[in-house]
Specification:
407 residues; 13 strands; four-stranded mixed sheet; 10 helices; disordered N terminus; four-stranded antiparallel sheet
């Protein structure tokens, strides 16, 4: 090494080095299917993002749970409906379990796929959820290709199913079709786009601010800075070895300290130069703003995502926001998911499915369901009559959440 020369060997900042949802930069072209994203791995990227952003994942989980409801109500004189609700397929999944997975995929990826299985005589009906990340639309837009790993696609390993209402006979003798649910988005005709598409950037911000806090914790909240080392080295490899030894001994969490190795003098002038930062408040505000924007992008509500519990549990606010969510988001999503299922039940089994409805219950109640009507009116300061037969009913008997049969 030349005298009076300073060499920087290790210089790493605090930013997370892992991309949030970048899977591949390559473009995929195929004559067999329409690619989902430039690299055909958009579902994998969206799934990865949901696993790394806590608020984003919580909202997806909650939306799927609310949309799936608490079970189903139906006319008990229709036994086939009860069988479908209890056991929707050969795997033993209930109809609610199937619907919950469909709702989760649609909330996460903007697309969901339901496989329908029957036979020539329509002697049975099975409904299977298919993982949306495994599905791609064929080029002729009349079939769906299912493959276990789209990063290693081989056409001989793919299963081909027709889009509903077309059924095709399979090797096992069954008739199969697949329903494709998708969120509408202008300019996208083959795949839907998740509703939170405008919030992907803020989900990345929330993830990176979490990484920053973890980095500070692992580094014991030590200051970042520059470590000047006076040492002599005969080669670049020797200099790097010295720096690595110093890093292991002094750096704490790698990436917090920049090491600079310079030619040693008679007096050892090695020293640490801290880089002070007072931006904790800015980072905290950035994280809070990103969290609020994620909720807005999802068209969802803070109290239904558990974000305001630290400020006090307000049952009235939760009930109010639940009613808004029910009438603006939940019921519409339920109708979209359930309508094709009702139609298939009627066409395949010949059973009237009009009575099949999803049971919705709020996450909390302002009054217990075992309270009588006159007691509730008294508690609200309204006129009441204990002798009125109608006011002798329990709240559970008159609310829309009471059903004859729940599975």
């Amino acid at each position: 090494m030349n005298n009076n020369k300073t060499k920087t060997l290790v210089a790493v900042g605090n930013a997370a080095t892992e991309p949030l949802f970048a899977i591949s930069s390559r473009k995929v072209q195929s004559e067999k299917f329409w690619r989902w994203g430039d690299d055909n791995l958009m579902p994998a990227a969206l799934s990865l993002m949901s696993r790394r952003s806590t608020t984003h994942r919580r909202i997806i989980n909650d939306k799927a749970d609310y949309i799936a409801g608490k079970g189903f109500s139906y006319d008990e004189s229709k036994p086939l409906l009860g069988k479908i609700v209890t056991c929707a397929n050969g795997n033993g999944d209930s109809l609610r379990e199937v619907l919950s997975r469909l709702a989760f995929d649609k909330a996460l990826m903007g697309n969901a796929f339901l496989e329908v299985v029957t036979d020539d005589r329509h002697s049975f009906l099975s409904l299977y959820h298919q993982d949306a990340s495994r599905c791609r639309l064929a080029r002729e837009s009349q079939h769906v290709l299912l493959h276990h790993d789209w990063s290693q696609f081989r056409s001989e390993d793919a299963q081909r199913l027709p889009l509903y209402p077309t059924f095709e006979k399979q090797e096992d003798g069954t008739l199969r079709s697949i329903i494709h649910y998708k969120e509408y988005e202008p300019m996208y005709s083959h795949y839907g786009v998740p509703k939170y598409i405008a919030g992907m950037g803020v989900s990345a911000i929330a993830y990176k601010t979490d990484c920053w806090n973890i980095s500070r914790l692992e580094n014991s909240f030590q200051l970042s800075g520059v470590m000047m080392l006076d040492a002599s080295a005969e080669s670049d490899a020797e200099a790097e070895r010295i720096v690595r030894m110093a890093e292991q001994k002094f750096a704490g969490n790698p990436g917090q300290v920049m090491f600079v190795l310079r030619e040693g003098a008679e007096n050892d002038n090695s020293r640490f130069i801290p880089v002070e930062s007072s931006n904790e408040g800015d980072w905290s505000q950035l994280h809070d703003q990103a969290t609020s924007d994620i909720v807005i992008a999802h068209s969802w509500f803070r109290s239904l995502s558990g974000l305001d519990y630290s400020a006090g549990f307000s049952a009235e606010r939760i009930l109010h926001e639940y009613e808004v969510a029910l009438n603006t988001v939940i019921l519409a999503e339920q109708a979209e998911l359930l309508w094709p299922i009702k139609r298939i039940i009627e066409q395949t089994l010949g059973e009237d499915a009009s009575s099949l409805e999803i049971v919705n219950r709020p996450p909390t109640r302002s009054k217990p369901i075992y309270m009588k009507v006159w007691e509730a009116r008294k508690a609200d300061g309204l006129d009441y009559d204990e002798s009125d037969p109608k006011q002798q009913l329990y709240l559970s008997e008159i609310t829309k959440y009471n059903v004859t049969k729940i599975n």
